[in-house]
Amino acid sequence: MNNTHYWIWLFLAGLFEVAWASGLKSTQGFTRFWPSLWVLFTMGISIYGLSAAVKGLPVGTAYAVWTGIGAVGTALVGIFMLGEPAGFARLVCIFLIVVGVVGLRFYH
Predict the structure, then answer these.
(1) What pLDDT digit, counting tens, does each position of 48-94 carry?
(2) How far apart are the first and last CA of the chain?
(3) Are 17 and 66 in contact (CB under 8 A)?
(4) Which residue segment(s) compose the domain that 43 sits in?
(5) Could you give the CA distance from residue 103 to residue 44 in angstroms, rounded to a whole number?
(6) Which of 26, 47, 69, 81 would disulfide-bridge 35, Cβ 3.0–4.6 Å?
(7) Residue 1 has pLDDT above 70, yes or no
(8) Rounded to the nearest 10 degrees, what angle do helices 59-81 and 88-106 cross at?
(9) What is the spatial distance between Cα 66 and Cα 90, in angstroms, rounded to a whole number?
(10) 45-66 b/e (C-beta count within 10 Å ≥ 16 → b)
(11) Under a CB-based contact definition with an 8 Å cutoff, are residues 72 and 20 in contact?
(12) Which residues have a Cβ under 8 Å from the Cβ of 81 and sit 6 or more positions away?
């Protein structure tokens, strides 16, 4: 597996992190079966993808990028799909996370 494959695994793991984190509210504290099953399923895929990525990437870089994708993606889902506020300061902070993740991708 070349280096690009590890980054693809990491990106996919980050997308599944967005899926489970965005679905947490719908579980209502894991009291609703189907939303809870979805969250646990996507959580498992996310962790599996992260574990595949750290086979070829530094664990610190991979974890930081994974959480960055999850944080930015979940914040954007909240803004665009769940009606959460998108104030200027919040958008600047999201942008700074993106800059950090991109930096880690190129300077790991």
Answers:
(1) 999 999 999 999 999 999 999 999 999 999 999 999 999 999 999 99
(2) 18
(3) yes
(4) 3-106
(5) 27
(6) 26
(7) no
(8) 150
(9) 20
(10) bbeebbebbbebbeeebbbbbb
(11) no
(12) 22
Domain tally, the chain: 1
pLDDT higher than 90, residue 106: no
- Scan for tokens 């947490």, then name that residue: 24
Q: Tokens 């959480």 belong to which residue?
A: 67
